[in-house]
Amino acid sequence: MLVIETKNKLKEVLSKLDDNLSLGLVPTMGALHKGHASLIQKAVNENDRVVVSIFVNPTQFNNKEDLDKYPKTLESDIKLISSISKDIIVFTPAVSEIYTDSVVPKIYDFEGLDKVMEGEFRDDHFNGVGTIVEELLTIIKPTKAYFGEKDFQQLRIIQKLTEIQHIPVEIIGCEIIREDHGLAMSSRNERLSKKIRQKAAFIYKTLQTAKNKFGMENALNVKDWVINEFQKNDEFELEYFDITDVETLTPINNKINNVKYRAFIAVYVEDVRLIDNIALN
């Protein structure tokens, strides 16, 4: 397995690949878990060669403490990748390699996709995401790039990024991988105590019930019910719960026939911020 730290070396290696080979990209921030492994396995199954990037991107953190606490487990990450395939190229650049002048994000017009939910609570987060993803897509030029649906808003924004920047790549959304009790897998889960990690199943159970209610009630009633459920549980602090249409991510009050909807949630527990979402129809 090849581990590469510089853009120039990566470009050199990729330039030697046959132009007819398909190339998959799985961008990650490390601290890999089974969710990442499923993305990597899918990329391996669907492409001739695969690049996995490991880069904790500073421009998508609006909280320096959160950035400082983000787990860095490069040795075990490489071991997990190697267990999937020895042919994967791993790109592990330093911050100075990606941001050669100053560590600032580019500014994009995502046509409102970035103004709701995560965008409302995390200033410039999606500009930071767009900056690093555009850089990786430009360097690597993959045929397909793989992203998990746990960050569904991010997935939609990356799809919009490739559209507005005219980047010829197929963006593949992959299903959420969950722990046995339902909590969406996340690198942040490692910061939870064992007891709270089990109790955090409450988040997904709430989403499942919200989905059932959405089949019979309007969105406002469902939202009120979710807020009330969290008010009764003092271990979890609800930051937001929204129901939006899938295309524009615009929060809704009432359903329209033949429109797909999704519910999104962000929760604090033990000073750890967890997000999740669920398809409603």
Main sheet: strand order? 1-4-3-2-5-6
Radius of gyration: 19 Å
What is the total tally of β strands?
9
Please give the alpha-carbon distance between the first and last residues.
Answer: 42 Å
Number of helices: 11
**Strand-residue fraction?**
15-25%
Low-confidence regions = none
Secondary-structure class:
alpha/beta
Q: What percentage of residues falls in helices of 4 or more residues?
A: 25-40%
Instruction: Choose one word for the global shape.
Output: globular
Mean pLDDT: 96
Determine the oligomeric state from the structure. single chain
The string of secondary-structure elements, in order, is EHEHEHHEHHHEHEHHHEEE
Question: Which sheet architecture does the biggest sheet show?
Answer: 6 strands, parallel
